[in-house]
Structure formats: structure tokens, C-alpha cells
Design brief:
Blueprint (H helix, E strand, L loop, with lengths): L2 E3 L9 E3 L11 H11 L7 E5 L5 H8 L4 E6 L2 H15 L3 E5 L2 H11 L4 E5 L12 H10 L6 E9 L7 E2 L2 E9 L2 E6 L1
Parallel strand pairs: 3-4, 3-6, 4-5, 6-7
Antiparallel strand pairs: 1-2, 7-10, 8-9, 9-10
């Protein structure tokens, strides 16, 4: 099995198992470090929501760096088992794994969420079969997040994908490109 290490914090160097690359795509370490350099102390004692969870590496990194709780959504059954295993081994009491389609489960979740959180969206790249409208649908999920519930919204996407200046009540804050992938921040 392929593994990746948590970069920093209380779980530093703990191994995260990665699901099959057929179903998920792991975030590059340089992107992860850049994101958490941006979040730094803002993440401490705050919830982190990782939509399209995969291995859970971003949410587990957030917890390692002081986040209070991480929520994960994962549709692929095999990836979900890997995600649950990673969460149970590393931070069982501080994680919630939600199995199922993010486009179905996230709207239910957001209606129940009580705490202002950081949101990380890393949808499958639109070049994959059946994913042609993935960004359009992801933007609809972001639009439904009440402004009082979001500290920051981060979207990992293909660099060639043009992201809008405004999504609902959120405005583009910054964009950071890493080759074929880009992180875009909304506040």
C-alpha cells in the first residue's frame, strides 16, 4: 500500500494510507505545506471540513496542526474504508467520516453544522470520465454554505480551470498555482 506522512504538528510523521489512484488523487506535499502555511494559527481549535475526502490527508493534517475536529466525505467505497482506517488510527475521537456522494451528503451536513469552519474542496479533476460538470456542481455546494459558517473556503482544482471571482456570497481572495494543480481561496 502507498503511504504519505503527516507533515507537521502532533501527528507529524504518522503514516496515512492512500486509496487506489484509480479512485482518488492525493494532494501534493508542496500544496499541503503551502495551504497550512497560509492557515497557520487560524486553524487552531477550529473545525475543518474536507469534501471529497480520499485518504483524509488534508483534514488529518489540520488536526495535527491544532484543528478541533475534521469532517470527511467520500463516495468511493474502497477509499472510504481507507479513510475510516486512517481516522481511527490517527485521531478517532476528533474525526467524522461520512460515506456517500458529497453532492447528496454535504447539503444535509451543512444544515446541521453549528460551528464556523474551514472548508476544503478537492473534487475529482474534470478530465476523468463522468466528471465533466464536477466544478459547476462543486460551486453549487459552496454557494449553499451560510456566510456565518465559513472562515475560509479552499478549492483545489486543475490549473487550466478558470475559477469565478465570486461564488454566492464568497469572493476570491488569492490563487496559488503548483504546476497542473492550483489552490484558490475564497472569503
Amino acid at each position: 500500500m502507498i503511504t504519505k506522512k503527516i507533515v507537521a504538528g502532533k501527528y507529524k510523521n504518522m503514516l496515512i494510507n492512500l486509496p487506489s489512484l484509480d479512485s482518488t488523487r492525493s494532494t501534493k506535499s508542496i500544496m499541503k505545506e503551502s495551504l497550512f502555511d497560509t492557515l497557520q494559527f487560524d486553524i487552531v481549535n477550529e473545525p475543518f471540513v474536507e469534501v471529497f475526502g480520499g485518504s483524509g490527508s488534508m483534514g488529518l493534517e489540520a488536526l495535527s496542526r491544532g484543528g478541533s475536529h475534521a469532517y470527511f466525505f467520500e463516495k468511493d467505497k474502497k477509499a472510504f474504508l481507507v479513510l475510516k482506517d486512517n481516522c481511527n488510527r490517527i485521531a478517532k475521537n476528533d474525526t467524522t467520516c461520512i460515506g456517500g456522494d458529497s453532492f447528496v451528503e454535504f447539503p444535509k451536513f451543512i444544515k446541521k453544522l453549528k460551528h464556523k469552519s474551514f472548508f476544503y474542496f478537492d473534487p475529482p479533476f474534470s478530465i476523468r470520465d463522468g466528471m465533466e460538470d464536477i466544478y459547476e456542481n462543486t460551486l453549487k455546494l459552496i454557494e449553499m454554505i451560510p456566510k456565518e459558517l465559513a472562515h475560509l473556503i479552499i478549492v483545489e482544482h486543475m490549473s487550466k480551470q478558470k475559477m469565478p471571482e465570486v461564488i454566492g456570497s464568497y469572493t476570491l481572495k488569492k490563487t496559488k498555482k503548483f504546476g497542473k494543480s492550483t489552490l484558490t481561496y475564497y472569503t
